[in-house]
Amino acid sequence: MKLLFKLTILLTLVTLISCNKEDVSEEYATIPVSPVIMDLTQVPYPKLSDYNFFEGEIKNQKPVYGVIPFKPESELFTDYAEKKRFVWIPTGLKATYVNDYSVLELPVGGALIKNFYYNNVQPSNTTKIIETRIMIRKASGWIYANYVWNDEQTEAFLDLNGSTKQITWIDNNSVSRTINYDIPNEVKCAGCHTISNIKRPIGIKPQNLNGNYNYADGTYNQLSKWKSLGILESNTPNNINSVVNYKDTSKPLETRVRSYFDANCAHCHQPGGYADFFDLKLEFKETTNQTNMGVCVNPNHTIPGIEGRIVRPGNLAQSLLYYRMTTNDQNYRMPFLGRTIVHDEGVALIGQWINSLTGCPN
């Protein structure tokens, strides 16, 4: 009897342990794990698919678990290319808030993914992705990785040498446009993404992300969403001095202009930037002072035929800034990188603002 009793107890314990193991196994199986592959000793990989950022057909840009879409309130103009942006942060790590106007500090192993594409590409009237730019945070700092898509849209391949690609598409106004799209080389990447000789991202400033995004599970403030996902420190403030969408005509004109300058010009026109020798400071935090936007400021550079100011109130023809935005002359156009054609809507915005200003004191 004693032996039978001991055997019964032993079998009961084995059964309980087995059940507990099975329960634990099932519980752990429900915890998602990001399938992203980010070996910092091997990146940049030769192909975009090597990172495993997207599931299914890569051209559909459907992010895997852990790859989060985002969108700045005001976007950089790049010859009317559409953009899809994503961030990936290694499990258990978080981005850190510095201040409203500085980029979030991503942890080592973090990555930013930016896809450039056009809709209604001719002659087949389809969507075509041209390039995918990635910035990866290593222990030594940020690196660039640029991937050029094949015509079949099945893969993108590492290429930091730069090239051009002719694109014809039907724009939002049903007008056919053709450009030689400029895929930048590594030197051009550095021109915009280097401040005081340090490589860094541009768009992930809290002031740019403090707006709503339509996620798969609903519409949320982006910074709040990042915090809820555990990829941003919870002490990031809620009262952030933010840019606006410069296309939003319900917002004040000058705020829209300041937001446009911050998105399209400030990465060069700031201390330590590529164009800090010009008399302009175009970061959003600096443009509460109109002088920093060139209003009534004598230029330290000249353009034949224009003898005005950087911005001469009420006079587009004698405003150097306006001329630079409306010309395609490579010697004078601004921005000198990222565009080969004029941004009509941006020009209209800046023209409206200049015409709204009153005269200079002398």
Automatic annotation (TrEMBL):
<protein>
    <recommendedName>
        <fullName>Repeat protein (TIGR03806 family)</fullName>
    </recommendedName>
</protein>
<dbReference type="InterPro" id="IPR036909">
    <property type="entry name" value="Cyt_c-like_dom_sf"/>
</dbReference>
<dbReference type="InterPro" id="IPR036280">
    <property type="entry name" value="Multihaem_cyt_sf"/>
</dbReference>
<dbReference type="InterPro" id="IPR022269">
    <property type="entry name" value="SO_2930-like_C"/>
</dbReference>
